[in-house]
Amino acid sequence: MSFHSRIGRTGGTKVKRALGVQAALEWAFRVEKAQLELELPKDVTEEGFGFGLEYVLLQRAELGCKIDGGQHKMGSYTHPDAEVIAATVAGLPDSLGGKRMAIRVAELARAGLTPDWMPGAVPRCVPVETRSNQHGERAATIVVGIERVLHRGRWRTVEVLACPVAWRPHPKQIASARRGYGDWWRALGWVREGLIAGGMLREVEVTAAMPKARPWLARGGSGIHAQGS
User: Fold this and answer.
1) Nearest-angstrom CA–CA distance, 208 and 210
2) Tens digits of per-residue pLDDT, 179-195?
3) Residue 85 in contact with residue 34, Cβ under 8 Å?
4) Minimal CA–CA distance to 178: which of 87, 128, 88, 117?
């Protein structure tokens, strides 16, 4: 069933489709195949690039009518609401990651994914290296010193062995993944607020629904928190 066939009418008034911001992004980028239109490099002219999404937005606001989109899909149709969503993502401020975050938000939406915050990850102390023989698997050891010990009345020289260990996954790795999730979550909040305040969507209504801010806490987590969470 197409998007348009799901839009109903009540008493002659078109009923908008209510979507949370993540669902709206996935519809725009995954279903409608909307494209980001970021600032062009200085050596590229707009004449050879076509009208940008910002132009579509300005024309739509000025004329008060539905501007047909689709310039990015080489003849196929892109819903104008999807282009508005893409243009909003492209406008993410530098304080929230700017163009890099805009690309990340679009790529995740296009793939229908949420950033990997390493659910269930718990740091464990494990041997850096293991060795196997007929007796099974054992932690590898290294010589860290030489000592003289008195054994049965005689002095002997013995090697002091130690097993190098590491934390896997490292707590910093988990914290970094969860900071990345938090950055993405804040970017989605900015996009949601912009779409709601802009009021330019004709057939989609972006709701207040958001992904969980700290899903690792909601699921019990591992006690490893991103800085600032």
Assistant:
1) 6
2) 999 999 999 999 999 99
3) yes
4) 117
